Amino acid sequence: QVQLAESGGGWVQTGGSLRLSCAASGGTFSSYTMGWFRQAPGKEREFVAGMNWSGISSYRGSVEGRFTISRDNAKNTVYLQMNSLKPEDTAVYYCNVHKSRTDEYWGQGTQVTVST
């Protein structure tokens, strides 16, 4: 059974940094795309960053230059380093691992709160 365990969320002031981690278990994920989505109150879930099996990364425009995604295939873990955080980054952040639409897994989410 695949499980994704997220950690690293919390409260930070504007301009601060947080590092999220997501450890996947129950399989081998080196051939999967691993990434992060977020959902703010009253809004739809949105893509934040992703990295495919070959190490190619992509970001939503509003976080590019501030967030960095990385992965450690030996540990089945994906990270999201978030710098220069803004109040609009406040959301529940979800880890996502997928190879196809029918082979996709989600974490339970970790809260990130950025105060002014």
Structure description:
The protein is built from no helices and 11 strands. It is an all-beta fold and 116 residues long. The strands form 2 sheets. Strands 2, 4, 5, 6, 9, 10 and 11 form a 7-stranded mixed sheet that branches. A 4-stranded antiparallel sheet has the order 1-3-8-7, with no helix packed on it. It is globular and about 40 Å long. The N and C termini lie far apart (40 Å). The mean pLDDT is 97.
Can you give keywords for this protein?
single chain; mainly beta; 7-stranded mixed sheet; 11 strands
Count of β-strands: 11
| Termini gap | 40 Å
What class would the helix/strand composition place it in?
mainly beta
Broad shape: globular
Strand content: over 45%
Question: pLDDT under 50 segments (min length 5)?
Answer: none
Seen as an oligomer or otherwise, the chain set is: single chain
Percentage of residues in helical conformation: under 10%
Q: Mind summarizing the main beta sheet?
A: 7 strands, mixed
The helix-strand sequence is: EEEEEEEEEEE
Average residue pLDDT: 97
Number of helices: 0
- Report Rg: 13 Å
